[in-house]
Specification:
Layout: H1 3-16, H2 19-26, H3 30-44, E1 49-51, E2 56-58, H4 60-88, E3 92-98, H5 100-117, E4 121-127, H6 134-137, E5 141-146, E6 154-161, E7 163-167, H7 169-175, E8 188-192, E9 200-205, E10 208-213, E11 215-220, H8 223-231, E12 236-240, H9 241-249, E13 254-255, E14 265-271, H10 279-293, E15 301-302
Parallel strand pairs: 3-4, 3-5, 8-11, 8-12
Antiparallel strand pairs: 1-2, 5-14, 6-14, 6-15, 7-12, 7-13, 9-10
C-alpha cells in the first residue's frame, strides 16, 4: 500500500471525524478507508484514532502525526504544482552545449532574443568543441556542426555552412598559390582536431572527387585560433564560412581552389530523446529553427 495515499486518507478521516464522511470525500468505500488507516497504524506501531459507534477522534499520537502529516502533504502538493507548472510552460534552467567559435559568432544575439521571448527560462551555456555526452553530463540540448549527427540523438537541422579553403596573401606570396588539390601536400596546412576526415581533405574538382593527405604544421581544437594563425601567415586553413568570412571580405585571407567544391557542414540542434521533451527544450529548438530560417540570406544559410 502507498504510504502517501494512506496519509491522505488518514488526514481526511481526522479532519471529518468520520470514516464514512472521509470515504465520500475521497470517492472510496468505507471499507477501503478503514483498511488504509489500519495499515498506517500497523506500519507506525501505534493507534492514531479512537473509534466509537458515533464518532472518531485522534489519539495523542494521532494528533502529533496529523500535524506533521498535513505539513508534509502540503509541501508535496506545492512541489507537484511547481513541477506541473514547469511541465506546461517553458521555464527553468536550460543547459546548452555549443561549439566555441559558433557560440561566439552567433549565439549571443540569438540568446538575447530568446530571453525576451521566454523570461522564465534561465540559460547555462557551455562553449566547447568537445563531443559531450548529453545524458551523462546533464545537457538539455547541444548545437553540433557536422555532416551527420550521431544516430543515437534526435537532430533538427538548422542550417548549412560552406567550408572555405584559404590562406593569407603573405603566405601565398612566400609559398605560392596552389592550383590543384594535390599541391596542398607541399604546403603547410592548419588542421582542426575534430575535422571528420582528419588530415585527409576531400573535395570535388574538375576531374571528380579527390583527396589529399596534408601536412598539419599546426593542429588545434578551435577554429578562431586557426583563422588567426592563417591570417598571420602560418599556412592554409579549411574552416566554415562563419569563421573565415569576415577575414575573406577584408582581404586578410584569400579563397583558394575556386574550381573545387567542398560539401558544406550542417548545423544541428540535438537532444537525447523525444519522450517527455521539456517545454523549455522544445521552445529553444523551435526558436533556433525559426531564427535560422530568417537568416537565409546570410553566409550560414537556412536549411
Amino acid at each position: 500500500m502507498d504510504t502517501i495515499e494512506a496519509m491522505r486518507v488518514f488526514a481526511t478521516v481526522a479532519e471529518r471525524s468520520s470514516f464514512s464522511a472521509a470515504a465520500e470525500a475521497l470517492d472510496m468505500s468505507t471499507a477501503s478507508v478503514t483498511r488504509h488507516v489500519a495499515w498506517l497504524e500497523q506500519r507506525l506501531g501505534t493507534r492514531l484514532l479512537h473509534r466509537t459507534t458515533r464518532r472518531v477522534s485522534l489519539t495523542s499520537a494521532g494528533a502529533s502525526y496529523q500535524e506533521r502529516c498535513l505539513a508534509l502533504l502540503a509541501e508535496l502538493d506545492a512541489t507537484e504544482a511547481a513541477v506541473t507548472a514547469q511541465a506546461l510552460a517553458p521555464s527553468g534552467q536550460l543547459r546548452i552545449n555549443v561549439p566555441v567559435s559558433f557560440g561566439i559568432a552567433r549565439m549571443g544575439g540569438l540568446l538575447g532574443r530568446f530571453a525576451e521571448l521566454y523570461p522564465q527560462i534561465s540559460v547555462d551555456v557551455d562553449l566547447s568543441d568537445r563531443m559531450v555526452d548529453l545524458v551523462e553530463e546533464g545537457y538539455d540540448v547541444a548545437i553540433r556542426i557536422t555532416r551527420e549527427p550521431a544516430p543515437t540523438l534526435i537532430a533538427r537541422l538548422l542550417a548549412e555552412s560552406a567550408l572555405v579553403l584559404c590562406a593569407s596573401p603573405d603566405y601565398l606570396a612566400r609559398a605560392g598559390t596552389p592550383t590543384t588539390l594535390a599541391e596542398l601536400a607541399k604546403h603547410r596546412c592548419l588542421g582542426y582536431r575534430y575535422y571528420h576526415g582528419g588530415d585527409v581533405w576531400r573535395m570535388t574538382g574538375p576531374d571528380g572527387e579527390e583527396s589529399v593527405r596534408v601536412h598539419e604544421h599546426l593542429r588545434a581544437n578551435n577554429g578562431d585560433l586557426l583563422r588567426e594563425a592563417a591570417i598571420a601567415g602560418m599556412g592554409i586553413v579549411l574552416q566554415p564560412d562563419f569563421i573565415a568570412g569576415q577575414a575573406l571580405d577584408e582581404g586578410r585571407l584569400v579563397r583558394l581552389l575556386p574550381d573545387y567544391r567542398i560539401p558544406p557542414v550542417r548545423i544541428f540542434a540535438v537532444y537525447a530523446s523525444r519522450s517527455h521533451l521539456a517545454p523549455k527544450v522544445r521552445a529553444f529548438i523551435d526558436f533556433m529553427v525559426q531564427a535560422f530560417a530568417e537568416t537565409c540570406g546570410e553566409r550560414v544559410t537556412a536549411a
